[in-house]
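#onboarding

Welcome to the new folks! Below is a worked example of what a typical request in this channel looks like: someone posts a single protein sequence, and someone else replies with the predicted structure as tokens. Don't worry about understanding the tokens yet, we'll cover that in week two.

Example request:
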Amino acid sequence: SEPDSPLLKETLDEAASVGVDRVVQVGYSAEQSIWSVKCAEAFVGRVLAAVALHPNEAPVVDELEKDLQVIQELAKNPRVRAIGETGLDFFRTPPELQEKQKYSFRRHIKIAKENNKALVIHDRDAHRAVLDLLLEEGAPEKTIFHCFSGDLEMAKECVSNGYFLSFAGTVTFKNAPELRQAAEFTPIELMLVETDSPFLCPMPNRGALNTPAQIPHTLRVIADVRGISADYLAAAISENSERIFGSFK
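Example response:
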């Protein structure tokens, strides 16, 4: 929908009604990243933008350099606070396209550092390759593993490098004890919570359309695992968000 559509405002209002009053709209293509920026401009104080070519998008676009140039220009917009989601996805990308995917990832890292933006990483079945490439290129000061999918050992490596780990609804799933171990271990100052909307709706609504209003379910599970109150964790996550992305105003 258009940024000024009633549906988008309803989604934001529904989220605000359960305490989620600010969101980062993440890009996955040149066209959709432009839309993300328009959303951030339309909802000042409530929405910020991240822009990028998704790892599955980058190897198959018609004009990769042209699309990367769009991302580079969008990165200069003051409502854009992160470059993402970028990274590596060896689950959906065949081996013959993975070098092109790595090239795109490197370019996004460079854009993030040149513009002093956070980096939002998509990592699927590519943990070692992502970590190695970050070390090779030099990670931006604020690097976030979106929808963290690693185990405790990977969490330890990420934390040792100062990376932020963002947990999605998957941490609530019964078959994900390793994610809960990672969530318990991760220092609270390096933690975020997200939707990965419209996918990965948390329990007890798994399988439903995921929206920012579902965030409290994920947050409460993490709080329970850590033995702290949900209110305390929510305040810490809010503080982390402002520290990473800056003011939403």
